[in-house]
Amino acid sequence: MNNQPSLQAAYDLRVFLDEVRSLGELKEIPGAHWHLEIGALTELFAEETRTPALLFDDIPDYPKGRRVLSNVLYSPARQALALGVAPELRGIPLVLEIKRRLAEMKLLPPTEVKSAPVLQNVVAGSAVDVGKFPAPQWHEKDGGRYIGTFDAVISRDPDSGYVNVGTYRVQMHDANTVGLWMIPGKHGNLIAQKYWSQGKDCPFLIACGVPPAMLLASSLGVPWGVSEYDFLGGLLGEPMAVVRSELTGLPMPANAEIVLEGFAPPPERQSHPEGPFGEWPGYYASGTIDRPVVQISAIYHRDDPIITGDPPLKTYLNTDMYKYVRSANIWSSMERAGIPEVRGVWFPRQGRFVVVVAIKQRYPGHPRQVGHGVLATRDGGRDTRMIIVVDDDIDITNFNEVMWAVATRWDPKRQSEIVQVPASDLNPTVTAAERESGDMVSSCQIIDACRPFATRDAFPPTSSITPEYRAEVMQRWGHLFGAK
Asked: For residue 351, what are the domain limits?
């Protein structure tokens, strides 16, 4: 196991919580009910400027110690702990650090261990009861209780043997049955289809209480054939410790809180109505549909286990943890494609469907080329509704600055283009007819909010103080703003 405190926190939720508690960013709440109250408090605190992590205990119907953790990664300090980086790194400097790591990264497979905290309790056979854990009903109109929101669903490709880790929603159905919904085309779904096409059950592990770094690994667009375990080890510079499960032989995080082990029959043989569920765009878009299930054969859990929850809210209330690696991936992809002078890529918190890119213009059409470059990437090409390209004097991490550029440098008629992009079931603009036909596309607007290239030198200068003078004034007067 790693001895660096930052990576211990990334790989072990208990160490992470100790660090978060010492920072004053953990709020412990006793007595909230699993039916709606935990979800409502999660959303209400997400609306606060400073959002603490919430640890719920003494949950009605459950013994003390069966806990739920939400709003896990809603602060820069907590994101730094999960990424194993210096806490002062924020915004574009953090994207640049991730981009550097990705460029230099060598995949590091996990380290297998024989004993682990997740093996403190092992329940199998008729003793299995998923209902013994306080899975919340997060939203009022959800079709049931969801134990898997901030989770890691683990499977192995039967052909190559590579291990995939993905974040998919998991609904409790009964004591030993859970629903598993994976967007078609996602790697976990592709692996399951290989088993199902042969009439076989697909083995799965579902980690419902995971180390904080697992959200980064399991929710990103890692290429097919590359294990998220290996990717995460390479990105953080240390391998994750895993332990082999007893029935499927799949590797689970040694420090996981709760892991369900089971098999998913082909859907035509067994399925169950799943949903609706309030998803990350902030809507109920995918409805109630018969979906695959996993029959749970064993449960592994630590003493006093914690369900990690990341219930989707409106886009501007969801964690923005994912954006650092996705921004770095898009940036690197455009550089590899030969698109010059990209100075930053960012996903505004206000909308996960929006990508903002800063460039130093070099030729006519450069901003439009950048917009299409974003759409050509894995992380920017699905469901994207708007790509905004701005000059490099704009702070793209400040949405007010971005909107100022749009309002003052963009001509909607001359500097816009609308193109079709792939869409998913979660896109609320996809019509019922499109869902039924499988024609899952939506439109994306490319906004060139740069100064017009031909007249850029004649464009009126800005009236704001220069960055250099800003720094000079802050050095003298920073105490007025709480600066140290």
From this structure: 322-477
Task: Give the integer Cα–Cα distance in Å for 45 and 75.
Answer: 12
pLDDT band at 6 (very low <50, low <70, confident <90, very high): low
Query: For residues 390 and 405, is the Cβ–Cβ distance under 8 A?
Result: yes
Residue 48: exposure state from Cβ atoms within 10 A (0-12, 13-18, ≥19): exposed
Phi, psi (deg, nearest 5) at residue 232 = -65, -45
Half-sphere exposure of 147 (CA within 13 A, CB side): 30
Q: What is the pLDDT of residue 168?
A: 93
| Residues 171 and 278 both lie in one domain | yes
- Say if strands 241-244 and 111-112 run parallel, antiparallel, or are unpaired: parallel
For the chain, the domain total comes to 2
pLDDT at 1 over 60: no
Residue the block writes with tokens 């009964």: 174
Burial class (CB in 10 A: 0-12, 13-18, 19+), 252: buried
How confident is the model over 28-45, as a mean pLDDT?
A: 96
Higher pLDDT, 85 or 341: 341
> In terms of domains, do 290 and 378 share one?
no
One domain for residues 113 and 164: yes
259/153 Cα distance (integer angstroms): 9
Tokens linked to 146: 């969801």
Residues sharing a CB contact under 8 Å with residue 483, sequence separation 6 or more, in sequence order: 474
Coil/strand/helix, residue 166: strand
Mean model confidence pLDDT for the chain: 91
DSSP helix, strand, coil percent of the chain (3-state; round to 5) = 30, 25, 45
Q: 283 and 334 in one domain?
A: no
